[in-house]
C-alpha cells in the first residue's frame, strides 16, 4: 500500500504538520528526508530498513559516503543532501551560541559540539572562547590528531585566548572509538590547561568528551 493510501494521521508529513517533528519516530523522520522509496518498499519501509541497518540515527548521520551509498535506495545525491542538512544544523547552532549567553543555554553548547565533532574520523580538540558575560566570541578547532590521541599545547591555547581577549573557555574533544569517557591523560591535560590559563586570568568552565551517542561533561562529573 502506498503512503498516500494510509490514514492521514499515519503519514509522516501530515503527522509532522499536525503534531510537530518531535512526535515522529526516527524512521518517519528519515522517510521525510528520503521522500520516496524503492520498488516494493515505501519511503517509511526503506527508512526503517536503513535505520535498522546502521543501528541508530546517529550512526546513519555519521556514515561516510561509501557506507551510505552502499544502501539500495540511497546514493550520492541523498548523501550530499544529508551533509547539507547537518551543516545547516551546525551553523544554526553556532549562530544561536553567538547570540545568547552560553551558561543559560548549556544544551545548545552540548548539541553544537556533538554535531561539530561526532562525525570526525580522528580526534579534534576544540576551544569555545567566551567573554566576561559568557557569550561566545569564537569556536576554533585548536588541534587535530590520529585516531587515538591529539597533541595539545597549553602555550598555543593561551595565545589563542589572548588573541580573542577571552575571559573563559570551554573545551571539547571527540573519541572516535565512540566511548564518551575521559582518560587519565584527558584529566591531566585539562588540569594543565586550567593552570596555564589561570596565569592570564582566563577560567576553564567545562571540558566535553563527545562519543558516538553521548557527551560527557567534566563539570557535571565534578572532575574539572
The counted number of beta strands is 5
Q: What is the averaged pLDDT score?
A: 82
How are the strands of the largest sheet arranged? 2-1-3-4-5
Shape: elongated
Q: What amount of the residues lies in strands?
A: 15-25%
Amino-to-carboxy terminus distance: 56 Å
Helix content: 40-55%
Determine the oligomeric state from the structure: single chain
Instruction: Supply the helix-strand structural class.
Output: alpha+beta
Biggest β-sheet, characterized?
Answer: 5 strands, mixed
SSE string: HHHHHHHEEHEHEEH
Taking pLDDT < 50 over at least 5 consecutive residues as the criterion, the unreliable ranges are: none
Structural features, described:
It is built from ten helices and five strands. It has helices at residues 12-19, 26-34, 43-54, 57-62, 65-69, 76-99, 106-117, 154-163, 184-198, 218-221, and strands at 124-130, 136-144, 168-174, 203-210, 215-217. The protein has a five-stranded mixed sheet with strand order 2-1-3-4-5, with helices on both faces. Strand 1 and strand 2 form a beta hairpin. The relative contact order is 0.09. The model has no long low-confidence stretch (mean pLDDT 82).
Descriptive key words:
5 strands, elongated, 15% strand, alpha+beta, 47% helix, five-stranded mixed β-sheet, 224 residues
